[in-house]
Amino acid sequence: MAAQRNYSKAHGQVLVDSSGGNAYNKQATRHFQTNMNTELNTKNMKLNTKIKISVWIVCIGILYTPLHAEHSTLDSLLTVYASEVAHTNDYLAVRQTRIDSLCSITPRTPDLTLAIAHEYQSYQSDSARIYYGHLLEEAEPYRTHAIVGLVELHAATGRYEDGIATMQLMDSILPSFRLRWYEAVRRLYSDGALWSTVPNLQKEWQQEAQKYQSMLMNAWRIQADNEQEMDLLLAQYTAMENGELTVALEYNDSLLAKIDPNAHEYAIKAYERAILYEQAGDEIKRREWLVRSAIQDVRCAVTDNGSSWLVAKDCHEEGDLSRAYLFSNYSLTNASFFNAPTRFNQTFTLGHTIATDYEQRLNESSIRLGFAIICLVLLLVAVVLITIYTLRNNKRLHILNKEITAINEEFEITNRQLKEANMVKEQYICRYLEVYSDYIRRLVAMARKAGEKDPDGIKSKEMAHFYRSFDDTFLSIYVTFVQDFNALLKPEAQLVPKKGERMTVEMRIFALILLGIDNSAKIAELLCYSPNTISNYRVRVKNGALGDRDTFEDRVRAIGALY
Q: What kind of fold does domain 2-27+68-336 have according to CATH?
């Protein structure tokens, strides 16, 4: 029955000619790092975790509400609609100012009276009837304008028998009014049959509605030859009657493209599109276009609207009671202002149901709020107790922190002293190397002057002793240097000292670099090699380095920071 009602009302929303009225119905969120206070810190962390969990449990209980899986576009449109409803008085004031401006013009010509009647037709039915009544005494085409307008008003307000009586005033219909007249009468009988409780009358009016529907379709066919828009309209309704909804939607797209989105006609076509989507079974799209229709009704200050109460009904069915309550109140206010008894009764019944459910929701929220307040009070008491406990612990922690600070200061002094001692050792090692290498050079020179047969043998013997002494001295300070050094090299480039030796030539070179001697000439002088040999060793080792070779020497120096 609901589908039949929607379809019937969709047919009742055909746009009239530019001078006609267009009333219609529409369905419309620093840890402590020392060992002395680890145990106490751990206890506090556990306690804080319990507090956080308690807070989350209470917050979830307070904030929980049913979630609705709605299309994002639909939700955005509903948000816009709610915002526009909040400003409805502003739009109504603009329309009333426009009407007042027309009413202030003198003299009151038939054209002016007709313009005022048109302004009132979708705004306030009683006033529209008065101004159409004035035109009944005028000559054509004003009299026909008045009769058609009155029949449209009686259909919109549910005064079906008055509408049938008004039809009798029409002696003959002017050709330019046929489309509007057939549509007005068809809607009068169609809506009357829908709401009538008398079976015989219901059947009779249904037959009359079908008769005028056929007359309307024939008139469309005649006029479609000359007007593209009428051709599209005819094609849309033909496709609808044949169940070709996809095709009907395509024609509706073409019709919508020809309409100004800011005009009242857009609301009518948007409502028709919602009906098409309802027949196609696309609920989300139906609701989207119903809301678009309702939005445009608000912006055009139209109070004769059916989409608004349908939007409220949809929100109620989805459990969105806040919006349903807002939109139903808006619809009820409009129905009362426009003075449409059928629409008012229809909206009042829905509004009463929504208000009852909304009140029940508020009561449930009040109960939840009271429970949440009790929980918060208990939580506050727990927080006070925990705060007192924490303050006492903080005093103990303060004492421990002082002790830790004193120990850390002692550690820093000790570390500084160790670093200074290492620096002294490194300086002594460097000085020792310089003296020892200078001693070897002098010894060899003296051997040559004394005519020694094998001065190079003396040099080799002394150098071997020198290297052993250097290795032992250096490794006594940097115990794991060999392992640390090789860790910086690729597996295939790692160095292994010869049997009986503790370091290779390359290791000694980079040991001197660690000690701060990085000039190849100076290293060559200390180790009794040529500068080119030292440079070649350095390049070869760096080529086998892991990672960036340019930072290899810096990483070797960093080994010293470990001691």
A: 1.25.40
